[in-house]
Amino acid sequence: MKQTADVIVVGAGLAGLVATYELTRAGRRVLLLEQENENNLGGQAFWSLGGLFMVDTPEQRRMGIKDSHELAMQDWLGSAGFDREREDHWPRQWARAYVDFAAGEKRRYLHQLGLRVMPTVGWAERGDGTATGHGNSVPRFHLTWGTGPEVVRVFREPVLDAVARGLVDIAYRHQVDELIVEDGAVVGVRGTVLEPANAARGVQSSRVGVGEFEHRAAAVIVTSGGIGGNPDLVRENWPVERMGPAPRSMIRGVPAHVDGRMLAIAERAGGSIVNRDRMWHYTEGIKNWDPIWPEHAIRIIPGPSSLWLDATGRRLPAPYYPGFDTLGTLRHIAGTGHDHTWFVLTRAIAEKEFALSGSEQNPDITGKDLKLVLSRVKKGAPGPVQAFLDHGEDFVQASTLRELVDAMNAISPGPQLDFAQVEREVAARDRAVANAFGKDMQLMAIRNARAYKPDRIMRVAKPHRLQDPAYGPMIAVRLHLLTRKTLGGLETDLDSQVIRADGSPFPGLYAAGEVAGFGGGGVHGYNALEGTFLGGCIFSGRAAGRALARDLR
């Protein structure tokens, strides 16, 4: 077929929308191909909490947070741990460019599009307990007012306006199967037209083909996402030497269409994939009582107070506390030989500290309902948390520790818990609460968190004994491992142009978002600082769109 657009974008998630937006600002014509239906425009970003990693912002300064480009760069490099000469060449450069963006233009760029953030700043991924190691030294998690749907909206609306003006064509249910390469350059795509589907957003859709297509353009941008919805591919790429054997069971934090197909297709065409063993999965997964996709998982975003026990009832060691070091905790859990763990807490901790990942689990912020947001400071669990307490199969409650352990054993997928072992852990933790000082490092972390005023008011419960009936009933949560993000991917330069295996640029082929490891084939290195996934999609999609808008003739 003849060329019908300047650029073909494969995947209508956030990175694809951002790239399309930047291209149309320059008057370029875009063909946007998406294998799902129109309901899925915006991809995974729609489901997100909408957190954005930003540095030295007005919101931080109003909260008394002293952040800087230098501190953020120290945290990023300490977390990334770049150690591969070949595969980390571009990720190192992307990391510096991204922190520059987060400490500079990022807030202004999004603000001009109409995006606003909450006045308080969250402290996510607090780290491994060292100044130069993994983790955020200060709060940097800027929560979007409107969560993921709002992040999508500010790019979706100008793209749909460009559709109305004839600059963009969106072809839904178009599954790309091949990149067309001629004379060493990508010049188009071939694929399958899938049968129409009216399924709601996120629901698994048919892969029955009803036709074929071929489209050509001066360049192709791949923005198709990662592998988190494909458990077999996750296990195939699992870093056994670093993390231990792949878990036998994992529930899914992303829809089934996040299947990694385009990674293999781009590699067959000649693109270089690097750092494929780097990935980001969560340890605080719970099964959704009202699922949308297969094995639909929700992550508890916990405050620091819950007692975390392994499958045998032993307390996880420092610094593996709730909300501190995701992959360090994952590595420890994998070493126990079991795929589940337990939170033990009180009703008072759940009411104040439990938040749930996802836009649909936060209707107050997603719906921009200020009155409902302010109700969070009142006594009582937020509605979505209460729904899981009432209906979630992973939650049990009891008046006494003996009754709680019996209830835990009734739903345990592995070894039966020994009451004496659990009682020792709970009693030792409760004794440590009696003084305002002590050697329990988790309680030190709780008190440090409460020194940050927003945490003290809205996020971290006053320390108390878990067996104190005044704060009860006691609650236990069975936690699963859940898949989420791909940290490696297609290797790209700072213009998001894909690199070939020999290190040379691949003419006509670009990649952005998760399929490119959020930039360069792995901008995060081994660890992420949270609030960086949406930002990585925005930054890499922006780079691809601006480069092609500049260079196409």
UniProtKB/TrEMBL annotation:
Q: Which residues form the signal peptide?
A: none
> What superkingdom does the record give?
Bacteria
Task: Enumerate the Pfam families for this protein.
Answer: FAD_binding_2 (PF00890)
The record's section on InterPro entries has: FAD-dep_OxRdtase_2_FAD-bd, FAD/NAD-bd_sf, KsdD_DH, Succ_DH/fumarate_Rdtase_cat_sf
State the UniProt keywords alphabetically: Flavoprotein, Oxidoreductase
Q: Where is the FAD-dependent oxidoreductase 2 FAD-binding domain?
A: 6-534
Record's NCBIfam families? PRK12834.1 (NF009472)
Q: What is this protein called?
A: FAD-binding dehydrogenase
Source species of the chain? Jatrophihabitans cynanchi
